[in-house]
Amino acid sequence: MTSFKKLTYKACLGALLISPCLLAQAAGTDAEVEQCVMEKLKEVSANTLVSQIRAECNVEVKQPQNDPTQGAFSKRIISENASKYNSHVITPHKMNYILPVSITDNRNTDVYRTDAPLWSDNIEDHESKYQLSLKVPLNGGDLFTKGDGLYFGMTLQSWWQVYAENISKPFRETNYQPEIFYITGLDWHPMEGNTGLIVGLEHQSNGRSNTFSRSWNRVYLNFLWEKDNFLFSLKPWYRLSEDEKEILEDGTLDPDGDDNPDIMDYMGYFQAGAAYKYESFEFSMGVRQNFATHKGALELGMTFPLWGRLRGYAQYFTGYGESLIDYNHNQQTIGIGIAISDIL
């Protein structure tokens, strides 16, 4: 790549995404793209769109593989774009991990005392936890800016009382978080870094009823800044209001309405996050806060190499809302396990 191409690449870099603007300036020829398309046509199913294959080949052939202006997160997005139309590839969204052991210093037993006393008396302070998070592209080309994207994402977190002896090793809590989000790069490079923006609508619930039901809906903005192996994000949100629950004639609560009207007091109005890759280690941090109530949470993580694609993962959490059932419960947890995908 010539110095002129490096300058124009920098000027049109829509941070954290690759745009066709960048790809057109990178190494590679149309003949190489066509050759890539012909080779892939022999491998894919008959219902695969040629436009999808061509987009994938444009990424593979024309992307600037080692341009110094790319940060670690941009490189991840480039790698994902190279295979996002491949029906045999599942694209990660947030981290995917399994913690066989997660220990708390203050298990929330009060929430089960009235309607599930057996759980309240027999839940253990150590359990297993896992997170699965995937995303699917919804657009085949540019929407509003070069290289932008619309995605559907699904994140599932579950806490499993696998070590409980006197109850049937239940899944104590499972949280489901579907979302639709739009991601685009910004032509703004403070401190010689790259910036991007995500706008999304997400729902989160635990899929339960009556006194155990927890859910909320929110819209959010997520501002991203990266430089080299460092990523910073700031994600403020606005909760969509729900009607207040009513008491039915039999004395029970109406299943419709707000399950947790005070959730913002504990979950806060934003989350700030950071990730840093140092050699083969990756460190992450997430902070939530409500400055009015002085309640929030802190999560720290570290991944390290094990073997193959598998990486070790250590996680520490302190504060409110590790899960939705615990949104108003303060605790510290520490877990150790395996990460299948990182942030960077």
Provide a descriptive summary of the structure in words.
The protein is α+β, with helices and mostly antiparallel strands. The chain folds into 2 domains: 3-81, no CATH class; 92-341, Outer membrane phospholipase (ompla), Chain C. It has 7 helices and 13 strands. It has helices spanning 3-12, 20-25, 30-41, 50-62, 72-81, 117-122, 263-267; strands at 91-92, 96-104, 126-137, 149-160, 171-186, 194-205, 215-227, 230-239, 270-278, 281-290, 295-307, 310-320, 330-341. The chain has a 12-stranded antiparallel barrel with strand order 2-3-4-5-6-7-8-9-10-11-12-13. A hairpin with a 7-residue loop joins strand 5 and strand 6. It starts with a helix and ends with a strand. Residues 1-28 have low confidence and may be disordered.
Shape: globular
User: H/E series, N to C?
Assistant: HHHHHEEHEEEEEEHEEEEE
Count of separate structural domains:
2
Which sequence of strands runs across the widest sheet?
Answer: 2-3-4-5-6-7-8-9-10-11-12-13
Give a brief description.
By secondary structure, this protein is α+β, with helices and mostly antiparallel strands. It contains 7 helices and 13 strands. Helix content is 18%, strand content 41%.
